[in-house]
Design goal:
Layout lengths: L1 H20 L1 H11 L5 H22 L13 E2 L4 H11 L8 H12 L1 H9 L5 H20 L1 H4 L8 E2 H17 L24 H32 L4 H6 L1 H22 L3 H5 L2 E4 L5 H10 L2 H7 L5 H19 L5 H7 L2 E4 L16
Helix pairs in contact: 1-3, 4-5, 5-9, 6-7, 6-9, 7-9, 10-12, 12-14, 12-15, 14-17, 15-16
């Protein structure tokens, strides 16, 4: 029982980690296809990620010691499922507690979410769910048959045709159950109003800041790791690797520079682009306003820390100020808007037509 709970925690942890990694592109796609980020649909996609990893953790983990495994064959008789049911019914006691029947039910239930996600998230029907259930189950069973694709000298878990059948049945059942979800909430088609402007809210601005922070963080980690690998295997400078100063500096400079170039060219950060926001309306020349917009954002504030000493402390304090100003400035334009003299509008609004899309001034 403890092993099953641990496997569940592993699936949740890995699923959430991948969810964080994919969050920024997910937000961007959601705003372009649906015009917003729906809370319920976001949770469903996170559940799908966790489910995907749960399939693998429950079917493959824990990986055994190669010296302790027992090689097993394959069960290729499709009638084995029928015999398992007959065995459970013929056994004394409650057949619902018989291990063979419980295993069969578990195999069906395990793939019910897959069919549900196929219809609700992908907007596909029974045939797609059947193919997805059979394909995923076949991949799992083949992984077991090949000893995790050659990691082990032989299969230590049974390849079972009966599992293929019950898993596929579970996917079909899940797809059928998903018919209970209203049609308007199913599918991956773009919403007809996705291109229409929507109100600029503090929540939306906070989401943009979150996307900026995540994007900057991932870029920073990627650059730092790349520099460390280069120092280790190309430059062969172990002292620099242990010091970590060069990797740390590069992990701040490169993302800050990328944010600066993007904002100078487009006037928008990664978070602004993801949630379809735009700063506009400054009395200052556009290049200077955009430079100030960068200065008040995650790129500029992080770059300030490179100066060290009191500037490092100032950078941390200004980040807190930027968060506070999200809630204290009108429409959440925050520190970037105050410094640049700009205000926020929906990027889908045609600012050349104030009669149709009036610009809200700070």
């Amino acid at each position: 029982m403890e092993d099953q709970v641990l496997l569940g925690f592993i699936a949740i942890a890995v699923g959430v980690a991948f969810g964080i990694l994919l969050f920024v592109p997910f937000v961007a796609v959601s705003y372009r296809r649906r015009g917003r980020l729906g809370f319920g649909r976001t949770l469903l996609w996170l559940a799908a990620l966790i489910y995907f990893w749960a399939i693998w953790t429950y079917t493959l983990l824990p990986l055994p010691d190669p010296d302790t495994i027992r090689c097993v064959g394959a069960i290729t008789d499709p009638m084995s499922v029928v015999r398992d049911v007959q065995k459970a019914l013929a056994a004394p006691g409650n057949p619902l507690r018989h291990p063979a029947l419980l295993q069969l039910v578990f195999n069906v239930v395990l793939f019910v979410p897959l069919g549900f996600f196929v219809r609700v998230l992908a907007g596909r029907g029974i045939l797609t769910a059947l193919a997805a259930g059979f394909g995923l189950s076949l991949l799992v069973e083949t992984t077991q048959l090949t000893g995790v694709w050659g990691v082990y000298p032989c299969a230590y878990r049974f390849f079972d045709v009966g599992d293929l059948m019950t898993n596929t049945l579970g996917a079909v059942v899940g797809c059928t159950v998903a018919l209970l979800v209203p049609r308007a909430l199913r599918g991956a088609k773009a919403s007809p109003d996705a291109d229409l402007p929507r109100p600029v809210t503090r929540g939306r601005r906070a989401l943009a800041m979150l996307c900026d922070g995540l994007a900057f963080g991932f870029l920073s980690v990627g650059v730092s790791v790349t520099v460390q690998l280069w120092l280790q295997f190309v430059a062969d400078d172990r002292a620099a690797v242990l010091d970590g100063g060069l990797a740390s500096a590069a992990g701040t400079i490169v993302p800050s520079a990328l944010f600066l170039v993007l904002i100078l060219i487009s006037g928008r950060s990664i978070g602004d682009i993801a949630v379809q926001l735009r700063y506009t309306g400054s009395p200052l020349p556009a290049p200077f306003a955009r430079l100030l917009r960068w200065t008040g954002g995650i790129g500029g504030l992080s770059a300030l820390a490179l100066l060290g000493g009191l500037f490092d402390l100032a950078s941390s304090l200004l980040i807190l100020v930027a968060i506070v100003m999200l809630f204290t400035t009108r429409f959440g334009r925050g520190l970037p808007g105050v410094l640049s003299g700009q205000h926020l509008v929906d990027a889908r609004a045609d600012i050349r037509d104030p009669q149709r899309f009036p610009i809200t001034t700070p």
